[in-house]
């Protein structure tokens, strides 16, 4: 169990780990084959001792080969995080699963100490980051980004809404749909990319209840649940209110599902649809106990820390650290129960294994599909099957990318997106 000795003292230099350990102590065991160690996090720090403790809330149990894969500088798909290994059935949590769910973000950060250095995730992207508009201010000092934020007042299903959106650029409208539980900030790099905004008017809005968009009056008496009809009607109301002429719609995750519903119902209106992490349905994983326990929205769990901890497994291990954590920050800021309400659409109500896709005409509305290699929810295999079913205009797996390509690694993502946008523009 020499590998797990690296957990001891991991709080040094990490104020988050130190604070969490001091405020809420945790004792858990780690099993690797026949060997067991126990880690204890408290105000005194993090210590690791051989053997299993009776005080351990749970045990993380996996084969030695699983821990070997996890510890690689760039781990294989499905081994990039603790939750990823749980979802894929490589790691089993024995004991208090709820306590494991409470401490997801803490545990994911802590176990970074086990991973061998050398992934190079922050090194080779400096020049690419400049191209995506993420460069730091130069010697001239501060600058204002060419992004304008506004509020749109409109009625949805007879109820008043205040919708926030940002835009930049000119030309073909490109409407961007964010992932479940997040908001339009995920498209910050596209909004700042002069090569894109020279030909496209990029618009990213926050769904009602998300980001800076307000929930409707009376929300305090409701439980938020996203449905197909509500999602489609919201996108169409936004486009019509801004009088967008034949826009392109691009969405990721739930947005990647929504572009399919939009192409089905309004294919004549949209110039093209771009699905990021699109699939007919989402894979719940081999172990659904975290979801079944409702860790995303219950009074004895910090729902937003649980949300960020649960989606960290969907970020590629090669993503730059700053972009990875900004992506997770959007989840840390979400409203209570909103991520869970979006997942109702993602896992249940918006499932397209119902024959409806037979009516999707990709000649009428071209459909381009891009999916990250490390996505274990809308997997490349699921997107490939979707591409086959609907005869997609194009499909490509984005190597070294996860579930949030536009925000977790925007410099790498633009290399895949630009050829698609070029194809859309040429067809126009």
CATH class of the largest domain, named: Alpha Beta
Q: Tell me the CATH architecture of the largest domain.
A: 3-Layer(aba) Sandwich
CATH topology of the largest domain: Rossmann fold
Strand content: 15-25%
Mean pLDDT: 94
Largest sheet: 8 strands, mixed
Count the E strands. 13
Helix/strand-derived category reads alpha/beta
Q: Please, how many domains?
A: 2
Proportion of helical residues: 25-40%
In spatial order, strands of the major sheet run 6-7-9-8-10-11-12-13
Can you tell me the residue ranges where pLDDT is under 50 for at least 5 consecutive residues? 119-133
The number of helical runs is: 17
CATH superfamily of the largest domain: Alpha/Beta hydrolase fold, catalytic domain
C-alpha Rg (nearest Å) = 22 Å
Q: Rough shape? A: globular
Task: Give a quick set of tags describing it.
AB_hydrolase_fold; 5-stranded mixed β-sheet; 428 residues; Pimeloyl-ACP methyl ester carboxylesterase; Rossmann fold; 19% strand; AB_hydrolase_1; alpha/beta; 17 helices; 13 strands; 8-stranded mixed β-sheet; Nonspecific Lipid-transfer Protein, Chain A; Carboxylesterase_BioH; 2 domains; globular
């Amino acid at each position: 169990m020499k590998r797990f000795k690296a957990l001891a003292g991991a709080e040094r230099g990490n104020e988050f780990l130190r604070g969490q350990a001091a405020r809420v102590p945790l004792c858990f065991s780690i099993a690797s084959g026949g060997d067991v160690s126990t880690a204890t996090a408290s105000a005194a720090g993090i210590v690791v001792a051989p053997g299993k403790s009776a005080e351990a809330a749970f045990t993380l149990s996996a084969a030695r080969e699983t821990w070997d894969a996890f510890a690689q500088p760039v781990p294989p798909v499905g081994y990039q995080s603790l939750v990823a290994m749980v979802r894929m059935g490589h790691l089993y949590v024995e004991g208090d699963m709820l306590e494991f769910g409470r401490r997801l973000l803490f545990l994911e950060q802590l176990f970074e100490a086990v991973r061998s250095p050398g992934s190079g995730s922050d090194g080779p992207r400096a020049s690419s980051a400049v191209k995506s508009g993420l460069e730091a201010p130069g010697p001239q000092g501060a600058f204002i980004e060419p992004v304008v934020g506004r509020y749109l007042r409109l009625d949805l299903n007879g109820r008043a809404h205040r919708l926030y959106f940002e835009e930049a650029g000119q030309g073909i409208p490109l409407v961007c749909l964010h992932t479940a539980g997040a908001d339009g900030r995920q498209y910050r790099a596209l909004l700042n990319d002069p090569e894109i905004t020279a030909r496209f008017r990029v618009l990213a809005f926050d769904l009602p209840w998300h980001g800076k968009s307000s929930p409707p009056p009376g929300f305090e008496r409701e439980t938020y649940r996203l449905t197909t009809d509500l999602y489609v009607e919201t996108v169409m109301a936004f486009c019509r209110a801004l009088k967008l002429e034949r826009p392109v719609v691009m969405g990721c995750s739930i947005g990647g599902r929504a572009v399919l519903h939009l192409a089905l119902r309004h294919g004549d209106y949209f110039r093209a649809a771009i699905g990021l992490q699109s699939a007919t349905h989402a894979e719940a994983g081999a172990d659904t106990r975290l979801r079944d326990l409702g860790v995303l929205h219950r009074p004895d769990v910090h729902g937003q820390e649980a949300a960020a901890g649960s989606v960290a497994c969907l970020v590629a291990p090669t993503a730059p650290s700053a972009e990875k954590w900004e992506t997770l920050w959007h989840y840390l800021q979400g409203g209570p129960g909103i991520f869970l309400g979006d997942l109702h659409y993602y896992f249940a109500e918006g499932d397209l294994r119902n024959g409806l896709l037979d009516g999707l005409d990709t000649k009428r509305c071209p459909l381009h599909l891009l999916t990250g290699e490390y996505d274990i929810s809308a997997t490349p295999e699921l997107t490939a099957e979707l591409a086959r079913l609907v005869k997609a205009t194009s499909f490509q797996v984005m190597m070294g990318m996860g579930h949030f390509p536009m925000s977790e690694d925007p410099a790498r993502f633009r290399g895949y997106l630009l050829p698609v946008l070029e194809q859309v523009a040429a067809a126009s």
